[in-house]
Amino acid sequence: PTSLEGKVPVVLNVNGHDAQGKAAESEQVRCINLAKRGMYALHPEWFGMGQFRSPDFRHDQIDQINLCGAGGIATHYLAMTRGIDVLLGLEHADPERLAVTGLSGGGWQTIFVSAFDTRVKLSAPVAGYTGFASRLRKVSDLGDAEQTPTDLGAVTEYTIMTALLAPRPALLIFNAKDDCCFKADDALPPLLEAAGPIYQLLDKPHHLRSHVNHDPGTHNYLLDNRQAFYRMVGDHFYPGRADYRREEIPSDSEIKDAATLNVPLPADNASLHSLALSLSGTLPKNGDLPADRESAVAWRDARRTRIKEIVHFPSELDPQSEKLGDETAQGIKVTRWRVKADGWAIPVVELMPSTSPPASSRSRRTILLVADEGRSGATTLAAVRELLSNGHRVLMVDPLLLGEAKFPDREYLFALLISTVGERPLGIQAGQIAAVARLANQKPWGDGPVSILAIGPRSGVMALVASVVEHASIADVEVRNPLGSLKELIETGAPYEKSPELFCFGLLEVADVLQLAAACAPRPVRLTHLSKRAKAEFAGLKGWYKNWVIDLD
User: Fold this and answer.
1) Which of 122, 230, 247, 434 is the S-S candidate for 169 at Cβ 3.0 to 4.6 Å?
2) Buried b / exposed e across 308-347, counting CB within 10 Å, b at 16+?
3) CB neighbours (10 Å) of residue 472?
């Protein structure tokens, strides 16, 4: 407003995944209308949108921060609370009349800050969230990295967060025909069911309201939804005021272009990417390999314990196997198994020559093979043919998120969900590899430790973690085309969706790929088909233990 007296309401307006950011027309119209009603309206830019629309602010980069052991979600939360700080620092701001509202990702921001920051006195999220159980029923509702932060679901849930608003006024707005996400019929009922009884117990049932938009009913914060918000603000911030306007005030002529709304930023302004780079610089902590054997053994044992904790390696595997059938063709016996461990089913195909191996290969080994491209990939099959020609027995395994064990659609969203409920995809994968290795040590599967062959950066990390923890069942490990360093994920801005398990929370704090390999000692580790970066990173392993096997070619 151009003229103010006394204390007035303040509103934090947050937008969703809209490339225009704060310049989006619907955002401007709402903020202008609030100002015309005598309120302060603040619209902070959201990461990845508007002025922050750059690769360095991609939302999945908070998982790079997670990899370093810091809470990436804090960047979003602090941005919101700093916005509230700014609002409440304004001369005429009334701290008892502070509202937050926004659409889609802005709806998520609204519930996220309103649930935990009680300075928020009125909350109006629009088509931005629902409970985790509801999300599982629709892939479109699963939510991106910021909506599914690591371990959130282990301590709270969006239905509970809605109840945490009580007894403060809350207006939950959803769209009847939403073509993006959080359709009203699916998303709204569990939130009202959870929060309604709490508002009732606190004698404020009328403070919890909902509004379902039918015109246009799609993913929007247009006229009907805006007017629902204006009415809510009027009822609670301007009660009994006959002069308060509940209908929208025409403002189209006052819309500004994005260039006019741009705010100069400092040249050294931080980004999600720069934060992750800064955090990773001194990691892993105490990562240098000790020079003497006694210190090395103590270092290895302590590192094993921490790696097991960080990846949330299953405490009880108790693997069981079910034979699904076998056949012999072209001199190869093929047996299909379903292995069950820690609540997961793991597909395994066993292959072995049906005749005796060549005289030069009498010492047959059992090779557990896992590959980034899955069991049916061309590189995988070529490796299998080579192993079988030398008389070895091969166990082809597809751990979670690889090959047959992929989710059918947008699997990285399920990986996020696994992490938010307190598990880690990497721990599950390593546990599955360890479970098969454990079975292969037992009759009728086998009678001694197995060798692991991992092909690819993702499988390499899984196999090394499995070998670190399951040291009794695994005799040695070979990784072809390993990742040189987890820091490469940060330096190159690698997307989370391509290798979700590698962004395991806090892993880089404890161990990089070098430390994972070292913690397998004294069992042989062979690292082959190395990139230039990998050769440089792993050079220090050579000769670390007398019986250490390193192939740097």
Assistant:
1) 122
2) bebbbbbeebebebeeeeeeeeeebebbebebebbebebb
3) 11
